[in-house]
Amino acid sequence: MTASALLISGITKRFGSLVANDAISLELGQGEVVALLGENGAGKTTLMNILFGHYVADEGTVEAFGQALPPGDPRAALAAGIGMVHQHFTLADNMSVLENIVLGTQSPWSLRLDRAQARSRIRELSRDFGLAVEPDRQVAALSVGERQRVEILKALYRDARILILDEPTAVLTPGETDALFATLKMLVAKGLSIIFISHKLHEVMAVSDRVLVLRAGRIAGERTTRDTTRQELAALMVGEEVQAPAVAPVSRGRALLTLDNVSTAPLGGGSRLDGVSLALHEGVITGLAGVSGNGQAALAALLAGTAVPADGVMMIDAEAIANWSPRTALAKGVARIPEDRHAVGTIADMSVTENVISERYRSERFSSRGIVDWKAARGFAETLIRDYDVKCPSPDTRIRLLSGGNIQKLILGRALDPEPKIILANQPTRGLDVGAVAYVHGRLLEARARGAAILLISEDLDEIMALSDEVRVMFRGRISAPSQRGERSIRELGELMAGHGAEAAHHAA
Amino acid sequence: MIEAFEILFTASFWVAAIRIASPLIFATMGELICERAGVLNLGIEGIMVVGAFAGWLTVYMGGDLWFGVAVAALAGAAFGLLHATLTVPLGLSQHVVGIGITLLATSLTYFTYRIVLPEVTSPPRIEPFQPLPVPLLSDIPVVGPALFNQTPLTYLAFATVAVVAWVLYRTPLGLAVRAAGENPSAVEAQGISVNAVRMGAVMVGSALMAIGGAFLTMSAFNSFFFEMINGRGWICIALVVFGSWRPGKALLGAILFAAFDAYQVRLQQLTGGVVPYQLFLMMPFVLSILALVVMSRRAAYPKALMIPYQKGER
User: For residue A440, with 0-12 CB atoms within 10 Å meaning exposed, 13-18 middle and 19 or more buried, which class applies?
Assistant: First the structure.
């Protein structure tokens, strides 16, 4: 923390009427880790894109090691020793690790790419900083954690002195996160400075020296990590105290959807159900825990209508279903909150209006004689934007331009508006910030109070424990017997998730 | 039946096959470079027409043969620049622009032809490139005449494949070109301009397409006439897919197609008019489609092909 590595002063950036960054200043010392904490849409990524030259700021300057950086020039940022690990990796899948790393480091007019020299340099860097990855493998064959290591190696290969990590843990497993933190410690020990962007409080606490909290484009506070608490940071981040959802008792009604010994053919990813029996009751949230890839995708597909039972009986309202399809599912009152809100939940390049009526454009409310009633559709979109507090310029905005939290609110609104009897909520809060998570939870609990039967699939055990009246665990396509709220501890659930006692539980069910 | 089989072992058949393949090789390499950088260049058909005409006209006006090739390449690069300007920085639809370039280039060529040669009924001739036998090698039976007794432009075509392969896989420039076609944001993040890479690739690729066209008027034949390109450009687009975007495999595809073409002509003569000749004309195309179906099923196409890159867009 001797000299300053990076000095950002008075950065302001406007997108139309939205002020994404409002007079932000930040100083980063050498060998220091500064965390930039804030909810999605607080302006963290915008600030880093300005720093790296992807955007040009309307006001303000950036200095690296005492030298002013020309705005809007990534090349200058790279030359000044700034390396950025983007949230969405900038890797070419069909090329090797080595090719991705050396891209742009040699003069384009040299006649030969020096692979041997690059390979040994990459091996050396991997060894020094615990970034194990084989230079000659195709990026397409790498795990997400390995890809991130390649991104970090890209920066180190160019002798970066300042490393910016944008939401680096969003895609990592807990083990990979620990390994990343270990690497960061080694980098700091070598004198690198790091800006760590995150909305996860415990990570910020674990890895940073200093925390800068951003809220709505402004700096809401600055704290030395040692002297602060998670509660204080959370309060700064959302501007108010965050409370755990209050779960009121709701009486358990009749079974709305039952599966009796249902098996399915494997999906593309191999996910399948193997003799699953399950009942979703009115006013009950059934939490489904499990390590990803144990059949949750198959169960979700079955409820959503994109898969059909190969064996066994599926009943809705005590009536065996026939001709099961997404359309039938919607008609029978099954609401879907899909796992991947970008790929499955929405059509990125269509407008908010078009997306919110996409499940119901055939209904009388939105069309007559095959002609869409755009006035009604637009009115519906405006209602959802207002009622669900979606931050979005207009119903005509392409949905791709909204943040993840706002997209999820629209999906939630679309699913819950017809007051569905059965709700499939698959990873409903993945990747959302604290405020948005609380919002989604609140809406699901409202639906439960109204008597909906909800299946909550989540990899977040805290979420399962907080919301579910009944918890089941999936393992290798089979499902455990239910436990009531508070009956099984996290440790016991963890054992079921790892497969211990799953067979016995299955037979008991 | 035996005679049909024997054709395959005659030197004249292979000489013809390699000659037919030569323009396809140039244009296929040109298209391959464009697509590797992420730009589908449907202007290929028109750019080949331009190249055929520009090269021939230069020589007809008294220019040197090699000067003609250079003029053809420059004319191709100019249309490449137009295509690239519209599709790369402006990000317009590559399909629409490509077809537009083909129509524009073809019509402009015919128009120029009429302006330059208003009174001519039969196309004037030039003295084309002559075969240049390679000593010793050209004496090898069958292979010798086919590969080593061709015009210099054919040798250049084969050399082009080697150069393209070397540049794509062994140089930093090729790496940038391939990355621009796979994930342009990876290129931008490393401080290289995606627009510069893509525009450069389209211009160089278009120059090669034009040389492919020039081969027809300056090496295969000795004059320019309308409908000369006759869909060869479209065939090259298929050959790029057939070759899985790899120069070596695309070269094989070009030779294979040319061999079918040379074969069907000889087969026509053999059957003596009993079978309608259109069936034979159709053969190379049908076989190409079949080969394409088989080969391209596991082809890994450039991920960012046909996707315009706009800096700073989410």
Answer: buried
**Within a 10 A sphere around the Cβ of A207, how many other Cβ atoms?**
22
Domain boundaries, chain A: 4-238, 255-333+418-508, 352-413
Phi, psi of A453 (to 5 degrees): -95, 125
Please give the domain boundaries of chain B with CATH numbers for all domains.
7-114+148-296 (1.10.3470)
- pLDDT tens-digit series, residues A343-384: 888 998 999 999 999 988 888 899 988 899 999 999 999 999
- Whether pTM exceeds 0.80: no
Cross-strand bridge partners of residue A18: A15
Q: What does the pLDDT read at residue B1?
A: 60
CATH class of A255-333+418-508: alpha beta
Alpha helices by DSSP H, listed for chain B, are 2-6, 11-36, 44-60, 65-87, 94-116, 143-148, 152-170, 172-182, 184-189, 194-215, 232-242, 247-271, 277-295
Tell me, yes or no, if B190 comes closer than 8 A to chain A by beta carbon: yes
Three-state DSSP class for residue A172: coil
A18 touches chain B (CB under 8 A): no
Q: Determine whether the interchain pair A99/B179 forms a contact, defined as Cβ–Cβ distance below 8 Å.
A: yes
Question: How buried is residue B164: exposed, middle or buried, by Cβ count under 10 Å (0-12/13-18/19+)?
Answer: buried
Identity of the residue in B186, B188, B314 whose CB atom sits nearest the CB atom of A91: B186
Closest CA to A78 of A160, A169, A167: A160
Q: Chain B residue with minimal CA distance to A46?
A: B312
User: Which H or E run contains A473?
Assistant: strand A470-475
Each residue's pLDDT tens digit, A27-39: 999 999 999 988 7
pLDDT in tens, A320-330: 988 899 999 99
The alpha carbon dihedral of B239, B245, B247, B253 has a sign of negative
Q: Is the pLDDT of residue B78 over 90?
A: yes
Candidates A54, A69, A103, A407, partner chain B, best to mutate (most B CBs within 10 A) = A103
The alpha carbon of residue A207 is apart from the nearest alpha carbon of chain B, in Å, by: 26
Taking Cα atoms as reference points, which of A425, A431, A392 lies closest to residue A411? A425
The predicted-structure confidence for A417-468, as pLDDT tens digits, reads as follows 999 999 999 989 877 777 788 889 999 999 999 999 999 998 777 788 889 9
A residues 51..90 contacting B (CB < 8 A) = 54-55, 74-75, 78-79, 84, 86, 90
Between A311 and B294, name the one with better pLDDT.
Answer: A311
3 state SS of A207: helix
The residues facing A195 across adjacent strands are: A34, A164
Residues 6+ apart with CB under 8 A from A154: A83, A100, A101, B189, B190
Can A4-238 and A255-333+418-508 be said to share one CATH topology?
yes
Identity of residue B296:
S
Tokens of B227: 């409908």
Tokens describing residue A167: 């939401």
CATH superfamily of A4-238: P-loop containing nucleotide triphosphate hydrolases (3.40.50.300)
Q: Looking at the predicted structure, is the pLDDT value of residue A52 above 50?
A: yes
Structure tokens at A176: 């990979």
Q: How far apart are the C-alpha atoms of A172 and A273, rounded to whole Å?
A: 26
Question: Cβ–Cβ of B186/A400 closer than 8 Å?
Answer: no
Our CA-based measurement puts residue A157 at a distance from the nearest CA of chain B, in whole angstroms, of: 11
Counting Cβ atoms within 10 Å, is residue B221 exposed (0-12), middle (13-18) or buried (19+)? middle
CB contact under 8 A, B190 and A154: yes
Q: Note the ipTM here.
A: 0.87
CB distance A90–B311 less than 8 Å?
A: no
Total residue count of chain B as it appears in this document: 314
Q: Do B183 and A91 touch (CB under 8 A)?
A: yes
